[in-house]
Design brief:
The protein has 4 helices and 15 strands. The chain is an alpha+beta fold. The chain starts with a helix and ends in an 8-residue tail after the last strand. The structure holds 2-amino-4-trifluoromethylsulfanyl-butyric acid and cobalt (II) ion (2 copies). The site of one cobalt (II) ion has 6 residues, from strand 4 and strand 5.
Length: about 250
């Protein structure tokens, strides 16, 4: 691996570990009765305490340090005084900027006891991301990633959101290429060793269509069915990949 790639992987891993560490902390406080603002405050403080910036804060005018997307919110939910209640499902998405490099990750949290359907959606979403990550190595096609996710998700009766995608990441938050979570094997650009990007499938229990609310950020499912998302930042190598945003407390 050349020196520049080594350094970019090293720095992304540091930023990614801080982002993942913030989500590990969220695990300790999520329960019915807390607000999404409390989660935002925790993320802001954890990231700051680790010498990093929260990249979402003031990004294109986004007002908070993380995204909190509850139930039928697909992504980009804005933390607020909204109180989480038993049975809710929540995605928290954090991005740390440390020493010039970004690490971006999100996870689902179950609030109290959630329905079997919700659990199944969360499991399907996580597995779709991990299946796509496991095929990564130099010279596979971007379409292989999308097709792996789409096949698995649709076989499980869910749908893949098309209006949002993963992205290259590095010294900027969002870079080329777009990483679509649907598509056809063997299509699109070939991936190269040294690339760093996110895989962040948004999966709906119902139909795939979304719309953005009047706040200009909050994306929801049009049919109001539940939506789930996981996100890792990964780096491509000659014969595989590295995940830069692994949890220290989950397997
Ligand atoms: N973290 C999100 C992503 O995965 C982007 C959030 S942008 C924000 O790309 F402004 F909404 F924070
Ligand atoms: Co992202
Ligand atoms: Co993100």
């Amino acid at each position: 691996m050349n020196k520049d790639i080594k350094e970019s992987f090293h720095k992304t891993k540091i930023a990614g570990s801080i982002a993942a560490g913030a989500l590990d902390e969220v695990t300790k406080i999520v329960k019915p009765g807390i607000t999404t603002n409390e989660i935002d405050k925790l993320c802001y403080e954890y990231i700051n305490d680790h010498g990093a910036y929260s990249a979402p804060l003031l990004y294109r005018g986004f007002p908070k340090s993380c995204c909190t997307s509850v139930n039928h919110v697909v992504c980009h939910g804005i933390p607020s005084n909204k109180v989480l209640k038993d049975g809710d499902i929540l995605n928290v998405d954090v991005t740390a900027l440390k020493d010039g490099w970004h690490g971006d990750t999100s996870r689902m949290f179950e609030i109290g006891n959630v329905s079997i359907k919700a659990k199944k959606l969360i499991e399907t979403t996580y597995k779709s991301m991990m299946k796509a990550i496991k095929i990564l190595k130099e010279d596979i096609y971007l379409g292989d990633i999308g097709s792996t996710i789409q096949k698995y998700v649709e076989a499980n009766g869910c749908s893949v959101v098309q209006d949002f995608c993963g992205h290259g990441i590095g010294q900027s938050f969002h870079l080329e290429p777009n990483i679509l979570h649907y598509g056809k094997k063997g299509t699109g650009e070939k991936i190269k060793a040294g690339m760093i990007f996110t895989i962040e499938p948004m999966i709906n229990l119902g139909k795939y269509e979304t719309k953005v609310l009047s706040d200009g950020w909050t994306a929801v499912t049009r049919d109001k069915t539940l939506s789930a998302q996981f996100e890792h930042t990964v780096g491509i190598t000659k014969d595989g990949y590295e995940i830069f945003t692994e949890s220290k407390i989950l397997n």
